[in-house]
Amino acid sequence: MAELRYAEALHAALLGEMRRDPSVVVFGEDVGVYGGVFKVTRDMQAEFGPERVRDTPISEQVIAGMAVGASMMGLKPVAEIMYVDFLPLCLDQLLNQASVLPFVWGDQVTLPFVLRTQGGAGAGAGAQHSKSLEAMVAHIPGIKVVMPATPADAKGLLAAAIRDPNPVVFIEHKFLYNTRGPVPDGEHLVEIGKAAIARPGSDVTIVASSRMVLESLKAAEALAAEGISAEVVDIRTLRPLDTETIVGSVRRTHRCVVVNEGWRFGGYGAELAATIGELAFGWLDAPVARLGALDMPVPYSQPLELATIPDAARIAAAARDAVRAGHG
Amino acid sequence: MQNAPSLEMQAELYMKMQVVRLLEEAIGRLHKEGRTRGPIHRCDGQEAVGIGATAALEREDIVTSTHRGHAHYVGKGVDTGRLMAEIMGRATGTCRGRGGHMLVADREVGLLGGCGIVGGALPVAVGQALAFQVRRQPSVVLAFYGDGAAQIGACHEAMNAAALWKLPLVFLCEHNLYGLTVHARAQSSVADLASRAAGYGIPGEIVDGNDVLAVHAATARAVQRARRGEGPTLVEAKTYRLLGFSTSDVGGYQPAEEVAAWKPRDPIPNMAARLAAELGADRVAALDADAAAEVERAVAFALESPLPAIGELDAGEYVKGAA
User: Fold this and answer.
1) Who's near A185: CB < 8 A, 6+ residues apart?
2) Which residues of chain B neighbour A75 with C-beta distances below 8 Å?
3) If B267 and its partner were Cys, which of A325, B90, B178, B210 is the partner (CB 3.0–4.6 Å)?
4) Average pLDDT of chain A?
5) Are residues A153 and A207 in the same domain?
6) Is residue A145 part of a domain?
7) Please, which residues 158-177 of chain A have a Cβ atom closer than 8 Å to chain B?
């Protein structure tokens, strides 16, 4: 077990899979010579050559379409879309090709590709480089959506995504690349479709994804000092959703806060809240609280930017309210 | 360059065009009777493009098609019975009735496949050709697209990438003068889309899209170039859509004199006359009868075939197992 940064854990997973399986190819903007703007593919072109680790033009439709076409012909592409904000440029390929073809072509093709991207606010990157668009992708049937929060899950989920026979959109977070954590050495696989209890608790369940898991853990720490025991569930896979773990937790704690960094209206939190309402209504002592980004573009100036996304203080406040409502 | 097709092969190309024409006429009748679903896009007048181009391919080569793909499907060798069954939404269709006429695929014969999003298959074709190149397979991809698709951004992205990496890909532009109801002169800054090839540093060739032998010859040159590892070619086949955009088209925008000018260029009677001069009118009549019998069989097979069982929707949205 080594202590690795999240970006290093992703690199380790990719390196392992490329060494293991010659059909794995990597392509995207700046992934080759430069090694990726977040250095996840560093040194890989030197080891595997420019054909397997390929710099592409700034052509998102081709990057995504190439993943679709190459995967149906036997390669296992790991394509990179540099910012999730650029994903709409190739949404047609996800919505009208990747989601559609395996089913409507009558099970004649499988599309075992991974589309890696990253999102999230807080870095002063402005409105076109800071969004969280996971809800947009998680809306699409036939595609799996994964958002690891820890270095260990980054490694295990990326390796599992590469081995998955379905298209997987793998959303990293720009603020997590430098976070550190223990990561199993060698082959490490984390099953897609399974949530994790990041911190056990008994008074309230906080269901979160990606960087919001870290904020939720901070909130849980603060709540513990006040005598409130919060359980944090890290969703890890947004589609297919592990309803069993989430609902099981809510049935134990009777209160729930859902938190995502994407826009609140029509966001992923709405799916979570509705699912919990359907499956755990009788166990709830308070309405499900739903935190998300303010429904507006991400501002550039720091105080404005930080005010648009949930944080530990806001999560703790929502949990506190839920617990009080439950006692009322 | 390949030798010109033998007379026997010419006869086969003719018959395939006739199969497409008769198949579409049958679809038109079934549509009028309310027995098909949704809009159907016929290629009357354009059959020479799909039939001529696909004849330059091997079975292992891949075709990506469009929303107007019946000639591509038949040309690549899809069984006409299963094709009709797909168009009629039957369980015996190439895609088990899930795709419909715009989304026909048949992996066995290298059709992957139909696409209802104008230009949407071009980036996919780049990926397919990339796989052939990376895996050192000698096959090529033939990507059909229209003058409408030529105007979408994905077309530019795909051509640049394919040219950049010298992928084994042939871009076959089926220029039928109309993007839905809008004439090409109102959609494109240039009349000859092959001229755009120069911007990608690849060869561009204009061919008479109503001459099945000319289309075949031009495509064969492009396919051989791609197979030699020299990269993509843009072949622009000039043709004309004699009927509307789809069965839902009420018409009124194709000037009568334009249709009248193209009618004599209909590829099927012209090829029939050519073949009659070489093989005799009786042989042509026999080919016509064979085509009619094949279409009749295909329609009967489709109509006799069962509809899919609702239960198959329970399989879930994902493929199981390892990649």
Assistant:
1) A1, A2
2) 130-131, 134-135
3) B210
4) 97
5) no
6) yes
7) 162-166
